[in-house]
Amino acid sequence: MQRSDFHYDLPEELIAQFPTGNRRDSRLLHLPAGDASPMDRLFVDLPSLLNPGDLLVFNDTRVMRARLFGAKESGGKVELLIERVLEPNRGLAHIRASKSPRAGSRILLEGGGVLEILGRQDDLFIISSGDVELPDLMRQAGHIPLPPYISRADQAIDEERYQTVYSRQEGAVAAPTAGLHFDQAMLARLDAMGIQRACVTLHVGAGTFRPVRVDRLEDHVMHSEYAEVSEAVCNQVRATRERGGRVVAVGTTSVRSLESASRNGAIEPFRGDTRLFITPGYRFRSVDALLTNFHLPESTLLMLVAAFSGYERIMAAYRHAVDQRYRFFSYGDAMFLERPEDS
């Protein structure tokens, strides 16, 4: 398939710039397993689409205050996005500046602190925070790294709303946005229904926003992200299947985690980097239903959901969402996708 096959026209005013008043206030587009047309629902209807014994799999990553602003010692302005913490005082970063800083140069941060450039690793810079631990420096001087399609600076509301209520493992530069719709009351309601819960970890990287630049999908090199799927989660998935329940992934990052752990056929513990690129024709091994937000045109995530629900069905659903004025992307509305019965 071609990248252009995944283009759709999206009016700019449908890109959500702020979260809804409450987490559960979003709309929900339901794409059933059969041939039924997309159904317009509300996110609060989600429990009616689940069954006792189903397993919801969440991504418990937590967004770092990974965007930092500063200046070179020569005075030139610099913007950094910390992609990954390697050691307590060392990490990898994207750097935006009029001229790339050289190894040995220092960046003086707004809000206090100094970073030293140690060198390069591929298209990233290796940085050192000296005697201060890098996570502490980010908490002191960093900003919530809102996605590039949100055309405003981060605000106090983003400190809470660009995190899931169940986030635990700090390390992401973007939120697993399907989980932003859940509040504690919704989780308690699902628990009371007998819906099971599990957590994987995938630290979402800036590559999630990187456009596909090649025409043929098979020529695309997928970005790398760190993921963990524990033995306990594997056991929960197996038990769910044995009792006839469904494994419901909350977000594409949960899909990629579970499917990375199932590459050999059966699910088994996984820890490490994944470059799993899911496109139409992929055979899913561990996921039966998917809750997800809407994704960018020609993006790897749109290709994943097209693989899950069928290309024609997902593109028709996106056209429906545009016509019905759904809100798109990180702070936007959600979709509930049931896997076609013949996939």
TrEMBL record:
InterPro entries assigned: QueA, QueA_dom1, QueA_dom2, QueA_sf
BP term (GO), one: tRNA queuosine(34) biosynthetic process
Q: What class of enzyme is it?
A: transferase
Q: Which UniProt keywords apply?
A: Cytoplasm, Queuosine biosynthesis, S-adenosyl-L-methionine, Transferase
Can you state which reaction this protein catalyses? Answer: 7-aminomethyl-7-carbaguanosine(34) in tRNA + S-adenosyl-L-methionine = epoxyqueuosine(34) in tRNA + adenine + L-methionine + 2 H(+)
Q: Where's it mainly located?
A: cytoplasm
Q: Key word Cytoplasm present in the record?
A: yes
List localization entries. Cytoplasm
Q: In which pathway does it act?
A: tRNA modification; tRNA-queuosine biosynthesis
Q: What is its EC number?
A: 2.4.99.17
Q: Name one GO cellular component term.
A: cytoplasm
Recorded GO MF terms:
S-adenosylmethionine:tRNA ribosyltransferase-isomerase activity
NCBIfam families noted in UniProt? PRK00147.1 (NF001140), queA (TIGR00113)
Q: How does it assemble?
A: Monomer.
Q: What does this protein do?
A: Transfers and isomerizes the ribose moiety from AdoMet to the 7-aminomethyl group of 7-deazaguanine (preQ1-tRNA) to give epoxyqueuosine (oQ-tRNA).
**Family to which the UniProt record says this protein belongs:** Belongs to the QueA family.
Name used for this protein in its record: S-adenosylmethionine:tRNA ribosyltransferase-isomerase
**Organism (species):** Sedimenticola thiotaurini
Q: What gene does the UniProt entry assign to this protein?
A: queA
